[in-house]
Amino acid sequence: MSIEQNKVMNLEQEVNVQPLPRGFKWGAVKAGIKASGKLDVAVAIAPKTANAAVMYTKNQVVAAPVTVGRRHLQVTGGRVAAVLVNAGNANCATGQAGIDTCVQTCVAAAETFHCIFDEVIPSSTGIIGVPFPAEKVIAALPAVEAALGDTPAHAELFAQAIMTTDTRMKIARAVVTIDGAEVNIFGAAKGAGMIHPQLGAPIGPPHATMLVYLFTDLSASTEELNKLLAPAVEQSFNCISIDGDTSTNDTVLLLASGDTRTRLNEQTTEPFANALNQVCYSLAHQIVDDGEGVGHVVTLHITGARTPVEAKQVAKAIAHSPLCKTAWSSADPNWGRLLAAAGYSGATFNPEKVNIRIGTQPVFELGMRTPHFDEAAAHTTMQQREYTITLDLGQGNSECRFITCDLTAEYVRINADYST
Amino acid sequence: MSIEQNKVMNLEQEVNVQPLPRGFKWGAVKAGIKASGKLDVAVAIAPKTANAAVMYTKNQVVAAPVTVGRRHLQVTGGRVAAVLVNAGNANCATGQAGIDTCVQTCVAAAETFHCIFDEVIPSSTGIIGVPFPAEKVIAALPAVEAALGDTPAHAELFAQAIMTTDTRMKIARAVVTIDGAEVNIFGAAKGAGMIHPQLGAPIGPPHATMLVYLFTDLSASTEELNKLLAPAVEQSFNCISIDGDTSTNDTVLLLASGDTRTRLNEQTTEPFANALNQVCYSLAHQIVDDGEGVGHVVTLHITGARTPVEAKQVAKAIAHSPLCKTAWSSADPNWGRLLAAAGYSGATFNPEKVNIRIGTQPVFELGMRTPHFDEAAAHTTMQQREYTITLDLGQGNSECRFITCDLTAEYVRINADYST
Fold first, then answer.
1. Residue B7 — very low, low, confident or very high, per pLDDT cuts 50/70/90?
2. Is A353 found in the same domain as A308?
3. Which of A57, A209, A251, A390 is catalytic?
4. What is the mean pLDDT of residues B157-185?
5. What distance in Å separates residue A245's CA from the closest CA in chain B?
6. What pLDDT does residue A246 have?
7. Cβ contacts of A204 on chain B, cutoff 8 Å
């Protein structure tokens, strides 16, 4: 799906264009959790509450806010009044104390924002295993309340405060006209490292370094929102990897304020779903593009697989191969590493039927290097910031698109220095 | 199993101690395949032939020599007269031409070494996808024949010629006294990158950057050798990873010349198996220790798993996690990354029951950082060249030991420059 294919929506990566979805306010402050002293507590509130769908990480180890958030959504049946995010401390592997302190922040937020504490969804990102400084979050709440607003500047502050090693904020926006009314979607995300989301249903083990918040003024039930969110996540956030490390805190939260009173029907579900998919795809792409130490963004287009699962297996094996990723960092058309990774992916195929292209350059066919292999041209393609590698398995009709990146010495430097 | 536990054998990593297994000769020459101009064609011959057991990579994409080697062993029922190895070109993803040129080298070797061509086992390591320079191998054979000998110096030349990005040769030796006779084992290996062997039965898809040759003068059938080799490989080469990339050429070949006329019986099988296991473990350890860019060798001791498979799943997730590996490169005791990797490994466990130690330092217990966590002491442990991380899952009695290493900027540099 490309932006061009969808006439009814208008995607902007900049939020400086009105309107944002109605029925929400955003705010952020500096609470002293980040060592850098930057914005580190972000809040989004829905004064009239919103219906929510959520997907959490499938990691078996999950952060306290994921445990608490899941519990809250079960109790309320998916009703949310406030989202309370902190960056700088993941509140993961912090035991019962982590749960207790997380709940304390929700109780304090409920008082500040005039809701019940089950309607507060907490999120945390940052280092794992360090006691959670709840007192800093709680002390910051009055300042956040004073900072709330519904302008693009407020939404941008929210997007900035949730960042950790991100170098820039990640936002995306779409407008869909439904029955003559404009329905808005705004999304904010953070990523950078420990990025290989494997999001599943909210019931089950969760934890996240990728945090995504999607806001819309559509009127929809939690059940309807879940049906929209799952496929949007599957094709976007579940199809990216920076380093193959699936975080303990990954969260995608979709909130619908209902402020437009517009509901979906048979005709309008598809345009809205397309707009939501594109917002998610844009954010997913932005996350890889701003990955730790990334020099090149590579889209793996795996085609000709027997099943979608096998297509994804091949994409993931390549996306997680240090040898493929280091070759990309120097624009080295060492396609043999792509084939070797596909070979150990677990997918079934005959190498004689495999066809590989780097950009538009054919490199491998009929079991060997293509006779017209132009190494210089392939190298030139790979010198671009972004390009596509196509690998056709020649086995069936299933495919997938997976966005990943190179592995650079800068990534090693960033992650070797993280906690020291 | 440690060296101390086995009284009957004597393990030496240096070959400069007689005797080597009888019934073999080794030789190597410079054939101009390596750009560096170093030794690149190695041959081992068994003048009276040897019985062989082999394990090849499980990668679905395999190099021509693996396809040809498997075919030869099937035809001869496991009889080998010569092993012909080249370094500098993997002869993988080279199509039918790769098979044809590989066969040509075997035919030429059979003429040179006076055997039938099915008794020649070919091996190749190096870059994938580049046409195989068979003519260089063939032209070098008379010089190899002239260079053959059975002294430690000859065996060392063999071990040096099979190297690619290895910085030093890898050899191990053991002597077992069986019924009053000394039975010798000599092993030579190469590794360095694309090291995450997944070796399986010889029937099935194969290709390899890890090459291991084991020679013994025991008298044993192919069937007996296979029974000894499979468990030795499972606990050694199948329990190491440098970068998680499983090569298309990985090969472990065990040859028994029968020169001692000593056969195994119920009492002597275990001491011999122990000696073989230790030679394999020593070579596997040497491979990780000399991995590309390695600064630290880390043994992951996973205990308390429900099954051996789950123990290995946890070890592999940690061993392949760029975040864990980069933290090790700077001796950063960021144990949260270990727990997160275990969490997405697919193994089932309750984080509250997990216990993690770095060396002897406790770091995580009862779902949180241990109260006595001594970050400085953990950091000091991790500054050593080699140490063990113990992760007890608290679920059962299964365990595994897995040897891996850190991920450094030097690894990135080596592999970003490989083919350009």
1. very low
2. yes
3. A209
4. 92
5. 6
6. 78
7. none
- Residues B357, B316 share a domain: yes
Residues B312 and B342 in one domain: yes
- B129, B326, B417 ranked by CB distance to A330: nearest: B417
Q: Are strands A297-305 and A25-29 parallel, antiparallel or unpaired?
A: unpaired
CATH number reported for the structural domain that contains residue A382 in this entry:
3.10.20.340
B 71-130: CB under 8 A from A: 90, 92-98, 127-130
pLDDT of residue A156: 96
Cβ distance of A321 and B244 shorter than 8 Å:
yes
Beta pairing partners, B41: B29, B86
Cβ B45 vs Cβ B148: under 8 Å: yes
Residue A175 touches chain B, beta carbons under 8 Å: no
Q: Is A59 on the interface with B (CB under 8 A)?
A: yes
Question: Which chain B residues are closer than 8 Å to A409 by Cβ?
Answer: 409, 412-413
Size of the A and B interface in Cβ pairs below 8 Å: 230
In tens, the pLDDT along A289-326 reads: 998 899 999 999 999 999 999 999 999 999 999 999 99
Cα B226 from Cα B204, distance rounded (Å): 15
Domain total in chain A = 2
A190 is in an annotated binding site: yes
Tell me the pLDDT tens digit for each residue of A326-353. Answer: 999 999 998 989 999 999 899 999 999 9
B335 shares contact with chain A (CB less than 8 Å): yes
**CA A32 from centroid of its chain's CA atoms:** 25
pLDDT at A243: 81
From B289, B309, B334, the end of a domain falls on: B289
Which of B98, B344, B416 lies at the smallest CB-CB distance from A198?
B344
pLDDT 10s digits, A172-224: 999 999 888 999 999 999 987 776 777 665 433 223 378 999 999 999 999 99
**Minimal C-alpha gap between A389 and chain B (Å):** 17
Beta bridge partners of B400: B302
C-alpha B29/C-alpha B162 separation (Å) is: 11
Q: With a cut of 60, say whether residue B2 has pLDDT above it.
A: no
Name the residue facing B412 among A248, A409, A417 (closest C-beta): A409
Q: Does B209 participate in catalysis according to the annotation?
A: yes
Q: Determine the structural domain holding residue B375 and report its residue range.
A: 297-416
Confirm whether residue B91 is marked as ligand binding: no
Q: How remote is the C-alpha of A36 from its chain's centroid?
A: 24
The ipTM (two decimal places) reads 0.82
Based on the fold, state whether residues A277 and A308 are members of the same structural domain: no
CB contact under 8 A, B415 and A322: yes
Check if B191 contacts A (Cβ < 8 Å). Answer: no
Using the predicted structure, report yes or no on whether residue A164 has a pLDDT greater than 50: yes
Spatial distance between the Cα atoms of B24 and B100, rounded to a whole number of angstroms: 28
